[in-house]
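Input for the complex:
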Amino acid sequence: MTAPPEAPEAVTERRLHPVTPFRRAWAPVAVLAGWAVHDLDQAQRQLARLTTTTLLLGLAVLIPAAALYGFLTWWFTHYSVTDTELRIRTGLFFRRTAHLRLERIQAVDVTQPLLARVAGVAKLRLDVVGTDKKDELAFLGAGEARSLRAELLARAAGIAPEAAAGVGEAPARHLLRVPPGVLAVSLLLTGATWGTLLAAVAVPALLWPATHSLWTVLATAVPVAGAAGARSVGRFVGEYDWTLAESPDGLRIDRGLLDRTHETVPPGRVQTVRIVEPLLWRRRGWVRVELDVAGSANSVLLPVAPRAIAESVVARVLPGAAVPPHAALSRPPRRAGRRVPLWWRGYGLAVTPEVFAARHGLLRRSLTLVPHAKVQSVRLTRGPWQRALGLADVRVDTGANRTVTARQRDAGEAARLLRDQAERSRTGRRDAGPDRWLAGG
Amino acid sequence: METGSPHDTGTTGTPAGGAEPVWTGLPRGLLRMRRMLLVVWTGLATVAAGVLPGLFAGPAWAAFALLPPAGLAWGWVMLERNWRSWRYAERADDLLLTRGVLWREETVVPYGRMQLVEVTSGPVERYFGLAGVQLHTAAAATDATIPGLDPAEAERLRDRLTELGEARSAGL
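Predicted:
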């Protein structure tokens, strides 16, 4: 499955898996089938009108044309890996050549939709800084996708090119697996699920006295309840069997019940980490960990885990950083309550030698950590009402287009924070790891 | 890479107030340009507010024409206050920028974080001999724009920022 070792000059071009032309073949069939099921009578009448000859003639034209198009697109799509780039050449009429710089790769995901799992193929998706959509190679053989991912990550990490081709999958050390039971319970305990369920009960209860029409009530209740169910079930299916492993390439995430996804988060690419603690999870001490990588915002690192375990995982993503405990977070001064009543109690801030950590949210607490080395700029903002109370906000901008705000701080403290944070992010950056994390030693 | 003198940056721990950096304001030409634009637009608005109601609703309604000049008087003062609030300072390792009267904002952009420095100048700005400098970092939220500068100063700033940015550059 793996490519032959490359000559130093010539670059071997490889093709996608031969199953690729069929990837969209099911679409017209599905449309036809859907139409036939939707309107059985009509379909039968139409079929009866068709004579065998027209049917055969139609098929004789359509099938070879579709097959030829599929074959040609497949034939003209090539990819190759050079020392510095991944090149993708594609397009039958409109040629497109994409050169992806390996050191700019933020993450490589291998995904296997259900049908692809049956066929034994996989999709390779690449996150590169500065591109909106993910470039993807679909489909590759499952084994080939894995070895290509390993090769890309090895080259991005700076391993010598000769060694990179045969380096294979880096050994992974299993960290943790989220049990399905815990995942199910955690989804049941989210406020959004209960909110929609409550709406599904409350709306019909209000409608019934008003209309006394069973159909109206059902027509409103069923979609609302369905939405609540679909959201929870969708998340359950997507986050089922969430496994986290550690390897030299970074953290590996394997997940999914029907569609399997294998993601890798390379070290040093994480811009912010968010630890979210919904109200109903607090008694069990569970948290959810989300992270932002430049190029793709808002991905989940851990759907649910006990706080201690989550903190140890965060320490691996942000090397050397410890999650400040709730007691270590300093609250805004009491007078902030006149600017933001009640909710000011949820605000908090802690600055450790490694991270800038700001918390917000009273019921659903969310603590965001930014390593000093990832800070792009620091801003201090004050509105008129804040100035009257001697308060200010400090905003820290990161490369993942997320701004972390320390809200309603004392004005003097905020001004000091602004100066010190600029200084910290400057020195923090100097000590930060190189882009090619293995070559740097 | 230790080009930043420790004495400059060592003072950052002192309570702020902007005493230690050398602040530069914007040239007076920017205020003149904004006031001229204000006069032109309020002039047009006065004519429209006077003529249209006067023609269609009766002469008394032409009193609406008094509103835009009132706005002009207010804007005349506001523009000056806003113009005064814009200041920037180049420190050893970062650029400071403050602006705003009621909603005050102070931005610190480390030189090593700059991805791109742009100098822009529209036709009206060119007439008044002005050019704007805009800094981009990898974060889109960083809005570090200096709207109107002397073109020579803008180019000096651009070159200096680019040079410092290269010297202190770091990855994402």
